[in-house]
Design the sequence.
């Protein structure tokens, strides 16, 4: 069975492919879409991250492909209905980078609260800014989580360790289980009106696209802060700009953007906006974890027909 690794993958994953009898692996991470379409017919397994676009057109050439594995969580770059029609299993690795992403969320929350990016930039520029960069404590503040799944629940745990009060909105979670974990499940509207900080941990779907827009941002508390380490497009960037520019919101941090890289969007001009370049899952540990998971799952699926974390109707 032949596996193509078309996006960079930690060595630990490549070694699993190389050391499994019955599996042959090719690593080709710089292919253009036409180049990929030309060779995909030879492969039974495909390992990707976010760069490779798995389109219906590409899948129409993938005559031998049985499984696509994403080292990471988001599958926005895969046409899942087309894969299902072609009888190809699609899987992700939902656990390997959750701690890393939750830690990045906390890093942004602290950086926003204490103006760390501006403190670094101004001091490096020779300015000793103290008065302008006074921060705020997070102790006893309310953190509202949109989504309390694999990442959101770890953010909640870490935030409670920092003595924040955590409330959450998630129609898919059991309120009793969350209560035991110290998280009150509330309505979306309550998240908006009660939270000093809101952090988003939900996939991008029809329901969540543009969820934070002119109307919902205006219902957030005066001075509240918004963090998005989930997916670009859940927060409307133009509306966020207006909410920050007018100082209705105290600050916002985006790790993900409507278009990546975002280029010089208006938000970049604002002092109360901070950002990172989709670094949520970027640690050595997380990349090793997801590489190990995706390689193991692809190998298991190809050799036994079974593996966890399949997201379409394949078993
Ligand atoms: C993910 O979906 O796993 C993360 O957003 C990481 C990434 O896409 O690089």
Sequence:
């Amino acid at each position: 069975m032949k596996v193509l690794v078309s996006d960079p993958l930690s060595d630990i994953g490549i070694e699993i492919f190389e050391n499994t009898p019955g599996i042959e692996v090719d690593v080709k991470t710089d292919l253009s879409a036409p180049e990929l379409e030309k060779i995909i017919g030879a492969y039974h397994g495909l390992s990707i991250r976010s760069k490779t676009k798995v389109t219906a057109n590409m899948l129409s050439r993938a005559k031998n492909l049985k499984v696509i594995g994403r080292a990471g969580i988001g599958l926005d770059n895969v046409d899942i209905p087309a894969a299902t029609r072609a009888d190809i299993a699609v899987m992700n690795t939902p656990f390997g980078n959750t701690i890393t992403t939750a830690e990045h969320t906390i890093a942004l929350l602290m950086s926003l609260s204490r103006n760390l990016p501006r403190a670094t930039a101004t001091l490096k520029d020779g300015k000793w800014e103290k008065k302008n960069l006074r921060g705020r404590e997070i102790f006893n503040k309310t953190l509202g989580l949109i989504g309390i799944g694999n990442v959101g629940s770890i953010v909640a745990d870490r935030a409670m360790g920092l003595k924040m009060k955590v409330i959450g909105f998630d129609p898919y979670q059991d309120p009793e289980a969350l209560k035991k974990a110290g998280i009150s499940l509330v309505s979306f509207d309550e998240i908006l009106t009660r939270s000093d900080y809101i952090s988003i941990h939900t996939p991008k779907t029809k329901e969540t696209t543009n969820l934070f827009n002119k109307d919902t941002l205006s219902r957030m508390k005066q001075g509240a802060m918004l963090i998005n380490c989930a997916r670009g497009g859940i927060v409307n960037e133009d509306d966020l700009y207006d909410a920050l520019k007018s100082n209705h919101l105290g600050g916002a941090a985006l790790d993900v953007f409507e278009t990546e890289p975002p280029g010089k969007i208006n938000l970049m001009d604002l002092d109360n906006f901070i950002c990172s370049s989709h670094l949520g899952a970027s640690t050595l540990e997380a990349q090793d974890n997801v590489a190990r998971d995706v390689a193991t799952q692809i190998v298991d699926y190809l050799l036994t027909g079974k593996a966890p974390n399949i997201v379409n109707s394949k078993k």
About this structure: The first strand starts at residue 2 and ends at 5.
